[in-house]
Amino acid sequence: MKVAVLGGAGLMGSGTVRDLVSAQSSGFEAVLVADMNEGAAHRLVTELGDRRLQAMGLDVRDREALLRLLEQVDVCINGVPTFAGFQMDIFHACLEARRHYLDYGGMGVFTVRQKAEAADWERAGVTAVLSNGADPGMSNMLCKAVAEGMDTVEAINLYWAAATIGPESQVLVPPYNIATLLGEYANPSRQFLDGGLVEVPAQSGQETLLLPPPFGETEFMHTQHSEPLTVPFARGIADKGIREFTWRLHLPAAEHQVYRALVKAGFGDFTDPLHIRGVDITPAEYLEALIARNLERNRDRIPQQEYHEIHLAIGRGTKERKPARVTCTVQVGPDPFFDGYNDAATSMNMSIAAQLLARHPNLPGVWGPEEYFDTAEYFEELRKRHFGVTRTTEAVEDL
After folding, report:
1. Rounded Cα–Cα distance for residues 199 and 201 (Å)
2. Domain limits at 145?
3. Contact 324, 318 (CB under 8 A)
4. How many domains does the chain divide into?
5. Which helix (H) or strand (E) covers residue 248, if one does?
6. What pLDDT digit, counting tens, does each position of 12-23 carry?
7. Tens digit of pLDDT for each residue in 240-294?
8. Domain harbouring 108, CATH code
9. Nearest to 53 by CA among 12, 10, 16, 11
10. What is the secondary structure of 45-84 as a DSSP string?
11. d(CA 204, CA 202)
């Protein structure tokens, strides 16, 4: 099979390309790296030096060029940032071309719109699997594993935390796309509470958990994410009676305060441009360009730090008619295996999803990863990539 990675020279896309042609991967005879920045695509292909790679320039606003590209492949990975505004255009182009589709996530709003078009994809005989990064993506699979460990499900609560060990950086290094991050901080979110979706304020729902080292006592908050809009409605979870599903985030304290301040200053605005010296630019676009320039100019000022993250799903329900709690965790720590990746968890998980889709391209429609992929097969791929995966079940006094 052949795959195209749109935005393949970007932060996440380049990591996915890197994993697709790595020793732990298989299933694709050709990987087309398509990017608005054709020079960056060629540099990536030259760096990796794999004969399966091909670079090309692509402006996804050129629909005819996009459709011509899709004619050359079997699977399309949409690595164009969600807030660039082309999520549905690329999704619809893949449907028109009858090519299988994957993306890293649609911040909930786009994900729901995409799911609503499932019947069109079923009639076309092609598959779309949405939200295949780390969170969402791997996180969805943790939730599926939790639900599989219980006979009935009362609640699943999902968490993600990052921690750094070492000198504080004087240069802001976002853990993922800054527009996505600020969207999470700026926008209200929808959580699944008492059997239905409820909108809650941005940065609300504070909860503290005691986590293993190096995290310790960690405070979380609700942010805008797609998992609450898909997971509690998935087969194998909804039919077990789930009444609550929530998502919460934690970032290191210093960076957390920076992102809060940036949102207060108006940088969470993605739609209303500023008019500066005859040019229209949104605050988020300006900030993204500024951070990129600052990182390039000051890389020698970024200290060596140990980076850790934890992905955690905690479920409450019953097992053999007794109250039970099931916890599924993925931990990612410093490892030379991740060298060369901007975000190993997100980019590698997309690569895993693409390979599993290539193995099982037989279920037309629009799906979340928790509906399409097998947990044992998925977790085997994670362990091959040095992710620490655990699942525990314990009896509890009551729900």
Report:
1. 7
2. 138-338+387-395
3. yes
4. 2
5. strand 244-250
6. 999 999 999 999
7. 999 999 999 999 999 999 999 999 999 988 788 999 899 999 898 899 899 989 9
8. 3.40.50.720
9. 16
10. HHHH--TTEEEEE--TT-HHHHHHHHTT-SEEEE-S-GGG
11. 6
